[in-house]
Amino acid sequence: MKHFESKAIRTQTERTQYKEHSTPTFLTSSFTFDNAEHMRAMFAGEAEGNIYSRYSNPSTSELVEKVCQMEGAEAGFTTASGMSGVFTSIISFLKQGDHVIASRAVFGSTHQILTNILPRWGISFTYVDPTDVASWETAVQSNTKMLVMETPSNPGLAMIDMEQAGKFAKAHNLIFNVDNCFATPYLQQPIKYGADIVVHSATKWMDGQGRVLGGLIVGRADLMQEVQTFIRHSGPAMSPFNAWIISKSLETLAVRMDRHCANASQLAQYFDEHSDVLKVLYPHHSSHPQYDLGKKQMSQGGGIVTFEVDGGVARGSKFIDAINMISISSNLGDARSIITHPASTTHSKLSEAERLAVGITPGLVRLSVGLEHVDDIMSDLDQALAKSSAAVKVAV
Ligand SMILES: *Cc1c(COP(=O)(O)O)cnc(C)c1O
User: Fold this and answer.
1) Where exactly does CATH 3.40.640.10 map onto the chain?
2) What is the pLDDT of residue 394?
3) Hey, which end of the chain has fewer CB within 10 Å, N or C?
4) Across the strands, what pairs with 128?
C-alpha cells in the first residue's frame, strides 16, 4: 500500500477466529499464557504477544502501527492524553542538569511542564522565536539535549521551518521533538524534515468527533526503546476502547481534513474581506507572515483560523456571546465548529505582555472549523460580528 488513505484504512491487527471485518476492541487488562515456559519466554522478550495492557494491547498496537505508517515512523506508543504524550516524549530522555530549547509558542500545558515541572528536577530550558531558526544558535549550551517544537502553534499558528530546524538539531546533536497535532500526518510529516520524535494529541483531529482523549508518540526505534521503559513503568497507558475509537476515526481522516481545510480556506478569505476583522491568520492564506513556508511544508492549511476582531478584549467577548450555532468550547478538531477567545479564557492568567509575546492579541479569536455547511458557519459568524459591533458602540 503506497497511499496515505489506504494505509489509514487497511492497517490492522490480525483477525480473530471469527474473521470479523471491522476490528473488535480488546477490553482486557491482561493476557494469558499457555504454560510456565510460555510465560517465561514472554517476560524474557523471547516470544511475541501481549502480557498486560499497561505494556501493550491489540487495540493500541493497531493504532500505533497505523500512525507509524502515516508519519513514516519506525515505532511508537499510545498514551492516555496528548499531554501525557508530550510529557513522556520529553522526560524519557532527560536527566538532572540537562537543558532544552523550546519554541516560545507551545501549547499552554507544555509551557507549564517547561516552566513549573522540569525546573524542580533540575532540567532547564530556553525559549526561542519559532519563526527564526537562525536565532537559536545563541540558545545552545553544552548540556542541551532536545528541541521541543510545535507547528503550526496553538493558537497563534506560528510555523517552524522544519527543514532548517532539522539541520540545526543534527548539527548540535539534539533530539528534534515535534508536536504535529494541528497539522495531522495527512497535511505534514515532520520526520521527512529530520524530526526524531512526533507527538500528537489524538483528542483533536484524529478522533475528530470530540469523544475521547488520547496521545501518540512515534519516531526512531532506538528512541522509542527509552519511551517504552518510561511508559511501562510509569503507566500513562491509553484505554483500548479509546484506541479502537481513534483507529476507526483515522479511516476517515483524509476526507475529513479535506473538508475542514476547504471550509477553513473559505472562511479565511471571508475574514480577510470583513471590515471589522483587523487581521486573519491561516497557514495557506497570503496574509500569514509565513505563507511561503506554510505552502512548502503543509499540503493544505489545516482546520484552524485565527482572526483579530476590531474592539479589543470587550469586543472579543461580545462577539463570542453573539454566536448562535458554533460551540463555545476550549477544544478543537471536531466535526462541530468551535470558537474560543484566548485573552479572556485559556490565556487570561498571562500578562498582556506575555500574551503579546506569543501572538495573542486582545481581540484574537480561534476558530476550529467544523464540517457543518460552510454557509451556515459563515452566516453565524456574520451575524455575531454585526451584533457585537452594535453592542460595543452602545457600551461606548
Ligand atoms: C490539545 C493539545 C495538546 C494536549 O492534548 P490533550 O489530549 O488535551 O492532553 C497538546 N498539544 C497541542 C498542540 C494541543 O492542541
Assistant:
1) 4-250
2) 58
3) C
4) 103
CATH 3.90.1150.10 in the chain, residue ranges: 253-395
Helix (H) or strand (E) holding 127: strand 124-128
CATH topology of domain 253-395: Aspartate Aminotransferase, domain 1 (3.90.1150)
Is the Cβ–Cβ distance between 264 and 140 less than 8 Å?
no
The residue whose grid cell reads 468551535 is 338
Beta strand 277-281 pairing with 304-309: antiparallel
Whether domain 4-250 has CATH 3.40.640.10: the reply is yes
Residue nearest to atom 4 of ligand 1 (CA): 82
pLDDT tops 80 at residue 396? no
This model's pTM is above 0.90: yes
For ligand 1, whether the C-beta of 65 sits within 6 Å is: no
> What is the per-residue pLDDT across 162-187, written as a single tens digit (0 to 9) for each?
999 999 999 999 999 999 999 999 99
C-beta 334 within 6 A of ligand 1: no
Answer whether 325's CB lies under 8 Å from 313's CB.
no
Q: pLDDT confidence of 349, banded at 50, 70, 90?
A: confident
Question: From residue 329, how far is each of 31, 126, 220, 249, 340 by CA, in Å?
Answer: 39, 31, 35, 21, 6
